[in-house]
Amino acid sequence: MNPYLKRSVPSVFKGIALFTPGGDLVYCIDPGKQGRWHLNLCATLQEILELPEPPHFLVPCYTATLDRWLDSATRQVRTFAEAYPLVFRYRALLDAVFETQHINWQIAPLPEEVCEPALLATYRAQFPQLWESHDLVIRVDSPIERPESAHRPAIAFSQNYTQGYVLRLFVSGYSAATQRILENLHQLLEESLSHPYTLKVIDIFTHPEQAEIDQVSATPTLVKVYPRPVRRIVGDLNDVNRVLRMLGAPGER
C-alpha cells in the first residue's frame, strides 16, 4: 500500500472553489451540502489578506462548483462540475484539490451585468490584495456560524500560516500529465508535511516572466520559496525521498 495515500474526499459532496483575480484559491469540501460556503470563503479571504470587508463581488464571477451525488435509480455516483469563464483555465488544479479525474468541466453562463470587466475593475482600488498573487491554495474545513458574533473561519491550517511552506510548481500547459503531477504532489504534501503549505501552479507559457524570476528553464520544476534556502527539483517528482529532502520535511525514507 502506498504509505503516502492522501486523505480521501467523501464519496458524495459539494465542492466550492473561489479564486481571486490574482490566482489564489480557497475552497471547501462539504459532505452535508448545507453550508453557506460562498460567504465562508469570502470571509476567509478577508481574514487572510486583511481586506476591509468580505469580497462578495467575486461571486459568482470567480467561482467553480462540483457536485457529486448518488443516483438513486442506478446506484452510481454521478458528478457535475462547472466553472465560470474567468476561472475555467484552472480546471486541472480543481481536479487535483477535489480528487477528480477526467471529468468534463462545463462553462457556467456568465452573468454579464455582474461580471462585466469594467465593473470588476472598480473594486481594484478597494481590494488591491486580490489582484496580487500570494501563492495560496487553502482548504476551509468548517462553515462559519455568524449570528451576532463575528467568529473567524475555521481554516485548515494554523493562524500563523506564514510559518509553513510556500511552493511553486512550474508546468508547460495544462494536460493529463500535468493533472497526474498535481495529484501525486498533492498526495505527498498532504501526508508528509506537518506544517501548512501553499502551492501555486504556474504555466510558463502564460507567465514566462515568473519562470525567469525563479530561474526555471525546464518543466516540471518544483520550487520551495519558503522556508529559506530556496531549493528546487527539476523533472521527476515521483521520487518521494528526493522531494522530502528538498523540503527538509520529516519522514524521509
From TrEMBL:
Q: What Pfam families would the database entry show?
A: KaiB
Query: What InterPro entries does the record tag this protein with?
Result: KaiB-like, KaiB_domain, Thioredoxin-like_sf
What is one GO biological process annotated to this record? rhythmic process
Where is each KaiB domain found? 168-249
Identify the SUPFAM superfamilies for this entry: Thioredoxin-like
Official protein name in the record: Circadian clock protein KaiB
Organism of this sequence: Phormidesmis priestleyi ULC007
